[in-house]
Structure formats: C-alpha cells, structure tokens
Fold:
Amino acid sequence: MSSHPRGPVNLDTPIRFSDSLPGAVDVVVIGGGIAGVASALYMRAEGLSVALIEKGRIGCEQSSRNWGWVRQHGRDEDELPVMKEANRLWGELDGRMKGAAGFKRCGILYLASSEKALAAREVWLDVAKRHQVKTRVLSAREVAARIDQGGLETAHRWVGATITEDDGRAEPWQAVPALAGLAQEDGVCLRENCAARALITANGRVEAVVTEAGTIRCEQVLVAAGAWSSLFLQRHGIIIPQLSVRSTVSATAAMPSVFEGCAADEKLAFRRREDGGYTVSLPDLHDLYIGPSAFRHFFKWLPVAGEHWRDTRFRIKAPKGFPDGWGTARNWAEDDETPFERCRVLEPKPETRKTERLREAFAARFPHLGKPRLIATWSGMIDAMPDIVPVCDRVPAIDGLMVMTGLSGHGFGIGPGFGKAMAKIASGKPAGHDMTRFRFSRFSDGSKLRPGPAI
Ligand SMILES: Cc1cc2nc3c(=O)[nH]c(=O)nc-3n(C[C@H](O)[C@H](O)[C@H](O)COP(=O)(O)OP(=O)(O)OC[C@H]3O[C@@H](n4cnc5c(N)ncnc54)[C@H](O)[C@@H]3O)c2cc1C
Structure:
C-alpha cells in the first residue's frame, strides 16, 4: 500500500484492461467502479454484449478508496433487500475469484459510548426484524468480550453496541479489479484510460457513445460514473441533484488484532484488513466544496444539510478540474478533450491536519497499542443524492439510457446487488426488487424526499 496521499491504488502500474473497442454492442457501461463493473458482469450473464469504458483505472476513485464495509446494519429499509442479496453475492463472487476480494463475514458493530447513543442505534432493530436480518444488542460486558482493549481501565468505555454478525468486509482495491477480471473472462470488453465524451442520440433514442478512442454504436448505455455522472448527464440536458463530499481515510501498519470485523462509535471507525492493519477514519468529518451545482440544488439538499451540517465543513472552492469546480466545462465538443480526460483520477488531497486526532482516538480506545503508525492516508469524493439513496433506473427523457449513481457513501457493499438489478432492467426483465425508491423521477415528480440514514 502506498505511503503517499494518492490512495491505495498504485496508478503507476501498467494498464491492465486495454481491449479493442468493438464497433457495436448491446450496452456501453460508462465508469469502472463497483457500480459499472458489477452491472457489466451481470449484464453479460443476461446474454447482453457489453463494453465498459473507464477514464482512469478500474476502481481508481471511490471504489478503491472506501472503508471496505459490506453492511446491512443500519441501512435504509428500501435498500435492505438489495443489500441482503449483495451480501450473498459477495460470498459467491469471492468464491469465483478464489478469495481475491478478501470477503469475510466478521460482523459489523456499532458501538455506543452513552445510553442515549445506544437507544438511537436500537431503533433500527425493528427494521432488521422485519427483514430477517440478525442484528442484536450487545451489553458492555459482551462488547468487552469481543473487542480487545487490553484489559486496561484507562480505555474508552462503551455502554453497549448493536451487531449484525453476518455483515462483512472486503479489500476494495483488490475486489473491483478482480471483479473486472471476471467480467472480462466472461466476455465483457474492458478498456481503461478511455473517457466517454458524449452520447449520440436520434429521435429520443441512444445510438452510440463517443469515446476518446472512437465511437461505439449501442442500444443502451449505463452511466455509472460516480461523482462525474451529473456532469456527463448535464451535457445532454439531464439534471440530477448529485453532490460530492470529501472524506479522508488512513491505513495503520499491521498490529495485533482487536476485532476482526468492522466497527464504529461516534468518533472512530475501524476495519481489520487482510494484511493485519486497520483502515481507520473519523466518521464525523466531511468537506463539501461549493460549486455551481451546490447552488443549483441548494433547496433539495436543505433537509439533509440541516441534519448533518455539524459533520460537514463547507469549502468555497473545489480544486481545479473537479466535477463541480467553478472552472470545469459544462459543455464540450465531441471531438475535443473533455473534463473527464483532464482529470483521469479524482484525487482530492487528504485532510492530514486531522490524522493526529485520528491516532489519538485510536489510542484512547486501545491504550495497550498506543497511537498507531499510519502507512497511508488518502481521500475520496463520496457522490451522494439528497435523500442518501441512489438513482438506479432508466432515464425517461432518452430511450436506452440508464443510470446507477449517487450511491451515497455506501455503494461498495451494495454494488453487486444493484448491479444485478440494473442488468435485469437492461434485459427487459423485472429488477428482482422493488426499485420505486431509486426511481429517476423522484426529484421532479413532486414527491417529498425522504432522507435515508447518513452517508
Ligand atoms: C472514504 C470513503 C469511504 C467509504 N466507505 C464505504 C464502505 O465502507 N462501504 C460501502 O459500501 N461504501 C463505502 N463508500 C462508498 C463507496 O465507495 C461508493 O458508494 C462506491 O464505490 C461508488 O461506486 P461507483 O462505481 O458508483 O463510483 P466510483 O467508484 O467513483 O466509479 C466511477 C468511475 O467512473 C469513472 N468515470 C467517470 N466519468 C467517466 C467518463 N466520462 N468516462 C469513463 N469513465 C468515467 C471514474 O473514473 C470512476 O472510476 C465509501 C466512499 C468513500 C469515498
């Protein structure tokens, strides 16, 4: 893993996926994160011919920078059936990949430092029960039996926790390229370093995708471009109220195990990695760079902003070339360089001024281990929708156009579940789940947005 702020993907390695672009396919998938890769894999399994194009490297943005939690616990209720299936699919896919995703069902624990915090966590138990998810409360003594705090009296005390035992973890930077390898084996055409510039449409239908390496004719297109989706769609007159926030993560060096799964309390999130270290983060720290889209969608975001403004710091200016940067082009010619080629990898600078706070939070919980040595610190831009659930649907204005985006800080775990649903939609079959909540039209059909649990 890198010790520089570029994140866990080594961008200096040679391009792995460089298939020749086909002249025509059934579906072009734009974006090689978990959303695009999982959708492409399952579309192929439905018998569709698929080309996936990625402007940078497979998994180079959010899909490699995340914490690696595969979580049912605390989910929005409408997402839960999809997530239950995703949990099963991760097991299946990891088997096919011979363990390359590092998927393990070691449990997810939400630790509470006060009775009030525990009571707030317990509210979700009703949701779990309705969906037969095995989530239960642990007493302080049970927590102590599971989390090794070295038996020291000085350690931060938790009054209890809620746990979902069969929730999992995976290694994001291994999992997504390995999944892409599976898709390629199954016949998906995969091309890194190849940006989609624009759609070609005629009579309200998709006809082709123009890429920097040529044009691919197609019946359907899936935009799974993460934080770039709204910019891409906007050029075609399609507006979604998507914004992105920066979140910073660190990796500790290998150390004795304190818990094998994923856990978080109010001030610290940690996840055991396969290499024996922990992926750690301050969960209450997000930065929103204010750009034209933040102004445009201000009123749609107000309810969420009201709830989470304490966890979010507002920055006046996005770095140059970011999707919602002030100077980022909103329109471009198909035969000219686009914002996607100018920023191959969205790589926000990590918030390193908080790493000392992070190390202290860890040491307060595990005084027997002390302040951990951090071997890498990186950031990712989390793309989110104002109701904190994604859009996974056809786009009504253009026949053949589909979107899977706005996975709102919890799309890694659920990616295979929604990817499979999108594949069904692409092949004209029922999605397999009730997708009403994730419909494209919810931002414009006058319905009241219902924010799901936090990012
Ligand atoms: C710090 C952090 C922690 C997180 N922790 C978790 C977690 O523990 N569990 C969890 O479930 N989720 C987590 N998430 C969220 C999760 O990572 C995302 O929801 C998920 O990875 C989104 O996947 P995606 O494929 O939609 O987007 P991305 O992974 O961002 O992929 C989009 C891809 O599209 C490409 N692209 C964009 N435009 C174009 C174009 N025009 N042409 C070609 N390619 C293009 C980009 O280069 C990018 O690779 C976390 C996210 C972050 C940042």
